[in-house]
Amino acid sequence: MKKELKLTVNGQPYELYVEPKTLLVQVLRDHLGLTGTKRGCNCSSCGACTVMLDGMAVKSCSILAMQANGTEVLTVEGLATGVQLHPLQEAFLDHGAFQCGFCTSGMLMSAKALLAENPKPTKEQIKEGIDGNMCRCTGYNSIIRAVTAVVKGEYKEEK
Amino acid sequence: MSQYSVIGTRVHRVDGLEKVTGSAKYTFDIVLPNMLYGKILRSPHPHAKILNIDTSQAEKLIGVKAVVTGKDTLGKKQGIWRRFPELCDEEILCREKVRYIGDPVAAVAAIDEDTAEEALDLIDVEYEPLPAVFDPMEAIKEDAPQIHDGVELNINVTRHIEWGDVDEAFKKCDHIREDQFKCSSQAHMCMETHDAVASYSYDGKLTVWTSTQSSYYIQRLLADILDLREGDIRVIKPPTGGGFGSKFELDSAQFCASVLSMKLCKPVKIVLTREEEFTATKRRTPMYYYLRLGAKKDGTLLAKEVRVITDGGAYTGMGATALYLTGFFSSFPYKYPNYRYDGYRVYTNTAPTSAMRGFGAPQSTFVGESQLDMMAEDLGIDPIELRRKNGMTPNYEVPGQAYIQSCGLHQCLDKIEEHIKQRGKLPPNHGIGIAAYGFMSGGIFNWFDTPYAFSAAIVRINIDGKVDLFTGACDIGQGSDTTLSMICAEELGVHLEDIRIYSGDTGICPADLGAWGSRETLMNGNAVKMAAADAKRQLLEFAGAKLGANIVYDMDIKDRWVHLVDRPERGVSYFDIVKEAIRGKDGEVIIGRGHYTPHRKGMISPAYSFGVQAAEVEVDPETGRYKLVNVTTAHESGTVINPVGIEGQLEGAIMMAGGYGFCEDQPMDEGKILNPSIADYKLIRSLDMPETKILEIDTYEPEGPFGAKEAGEGLTNPTAGAIANAVYKAVGVRINNLPITPEKVLRALREKQKQKR
After folding, report:
1. Of B176, B194, B363, B694, whose CA is between 20 and 30 Å from B371?
2. pLDDT tens profile B538-597
């Protein structure tokens, strides 16, 4: 029996009907076509599906879509303002903080959530902030350098 | 000012914007109209006869559109070693027998994944379990179950490499060591699992979008097994979420999606689950190593003998190459005057083993560098000194095997020695271990039996000066699209943003062997450079005529300015020349072509990179737990084309190779992998990642484009050995089997204490 789900994704309100067992990641990818959010494990271990839900980082494969009812979700597609990249996106480009790119959306969202909670994290706190996100390509250090550069204000302030 | 305007500069990846904005469309993201979803049923038995498969109940399930088994295929066996039919031993959809837990037996296409999954439960497979064998040392015994018909003692492949007179040389040695090691398996753990969307049309043409390291291999292998013409199959590689060696053989997703699509004339998508990825795709080859090393008192290494038994798992795949390369790289990076290798690849009833980043060399480097440190201690010689005394030098010939032109090993040793000195006296329970390595820039071997050049590229210059670069090279995340675009821009004298690259699409790109064996920078780079030079030559013909230059002047293009080399101010805009050249050619666009196949470069590779790594660990002697504190690497890869790319390759290699040494493992019980999830498969995460430092050594490789060579895979070789040597330096225990877990360190520490008492 499908249920009504109302949520806002990247500022856009949606009303849809979903099976109760539907995961948030399925709604984002399969119903709304927002494929920037990836799925690497389906068990909350890899972090590729990380999105922000009311300002907090969550793994969208481990939350039912209905749990997101009435919330505001931000995915990687909502990170830039129009065509203006978010400072984290700029920093990831400059620092080569991704290779295959499959973890990148989740990594960016975890970093964004970290900075929302703590705008001046130490290096150790940055490492902790992305510890739930698996990357098989970069060895993490370039990602840590990119986030550090944003923390240091090397990129223009967030709007 | 640098002689180059593009290469060596810090640039954004050409696929960067689509990746940071989430707009890159991976195979995983593709949805086609009328598309169905497939799932694969796999064997729960390590070894069993298939007596019957009843699919009738599954077919009746609403939403199921097709169920296929081996009977719906042509029943052909396939393999990537196409020159050797006996090594093409994999049916993919098994008809008579399954050989490991995970072997595919049937596949379903349905309207959604849930329905397909449900249908799998309704397929009734009647098996007759057979005795199974899981360890190559058991499988090689007379009374072991036979896994493949006609393969005696389950020996799949043997390799022998020899030069000099090993037995005579050992007689002249002052000291001989004999050691045994065991190297574990490792999962590639690509973030994007194996996946494919296959679409067969009524006119008999098949298009496959897939996450692969070689579109051409998949096209050719599908043509073989489906009995289609190569040209009727188009394989497209969208952005790919990692490969690391796991994605250049034909896999079950590609094959089953194609078979299902051919039955229905509808697109079918199959994405392997993470559990399937761990249990039913190939993995790093575990190896049992016996090493005998002989030296003179002064540290001159006179002879080395190596015997290896590798756990092949159920099928050959690229494992035959791993067996060869581990034997060849066991001699690296030293000048052994006498050397002998005997390798045996043995079938077992476990998930097949194959290529993984480093391709046998991380194993040989771990064992070789561990033993070399033991030898140094026995002889009372500093480990760096021992490596310096025997290390390879430029223009060295590995007897009868390979020619090494550029080689910066000695500069790397100097830099690492300096680094260790600078670190000074270490705190208690800290240790720094080193390991030296070398690696190839692409393989020369043609077991695939391709009739095409190993690499090829086409450059097309359009009326507005925009350059389309077509290459079969596959960017799987390592950055070849960026590196090749940089080479093209440099050679053609334009900016990076003038290039648009089309890669890994067999429909529009020339055949190329793809991304494996660290081949793309050198091999494809040479093809791209040649194609760009060909296009440039055509432009210069028109420029020469327009400028009315004396024919003794050389002309070139740099920074979009076509000019006389000796009088750079005398020139003309690149954009103007393009327009005039196309007009002059009766409207035909400018097309440059390039290809590369190594010739007269020995049997292994046209070029080799070298490096030395120092790993510092801090061991807690109470628990055996240790921390990777710092990993510093001095390496050389010829001219650096893409510095941001190299940093990424290096740091990423430390995560993967450090994991191989530190924690990654696939324990099994009766052929069943016990940790098939990311939660249970331990790997290095951000908090475990050590500090990394790169010490770049300048070399120039005459065979490479602008002097460049391999820079990504070889970096996987040294870390496990460096960690082993560091743990020994820190607390005096030697771990000979990977991974070097806290349990093993603690057990060894306790054993050591017992012996003291």
Report:
1. B694
2. 999 999 999 988 888 899 999 999 999 999 999 999 999 999 999 999 999 999 999 999
C-alpha to C-alpha distance for B722 and B183, rounded to whole angstroms: 15
Q: In chain B, which residue's Cα lies nearest the Cα of A142?
A: B648
Q: Is B441 helix (H, G, I), strand (E, B) or coil?
A: coil
Chain B nearest CA to A116, separation (Å): 19
Which pLDDT score is estimated for B2?
62
Superfamily of domain A87-151: [2Fe-2S]-binding domain (1.10.150.120)
Question: Does the predicted model carry a pTM greater than 0.95?
Answer: yes
Contact B241 A79 (CB under 8 A): no
**Alpha helix positions (H), B151-292:** 166-171, 215-226, 252-264, 274-280
The tokens for B377 are 């201690």
CATH homologous superfamily for the domain A3-78 = Beta-grasp domain (3.10.20.30)
User: What integer best gives the mean pLDDT of chain B?
Assistant: 97
What's the token pair of residue B695? Answer: 């010490």
**What number of helices (H) and strands (E) belong to chain B?**
18, 32
Task: Note whether B12 contacts A139, CB cutoff 8 Å.
Answer: no
Residue to test with chain A: of B9, B11, B12, B19, most A Cβ within 10 A: B19
Length of chain B: 757
Residues of A in contact with B692 (CB under 8 A): 139, 141
Q: What is the average pLDDT across B118-137?
A: 98
Q: Distance between CA B462 and CA B448 in Å, rounded?
A: 35
- B489-526 burial, b for 16+ CB within 10 Å, e for fewer? bbbbbbebebbebbbbbbeebbbbbbbbbbbbbbbbbb
Q: Where are the beta strands (DSSP E) in B425-525?
A: 430-440, 455-461, 467-471, 499-503
Alpha carbon of A108: minimum distance to chain B alpha carbons (Å)? 8
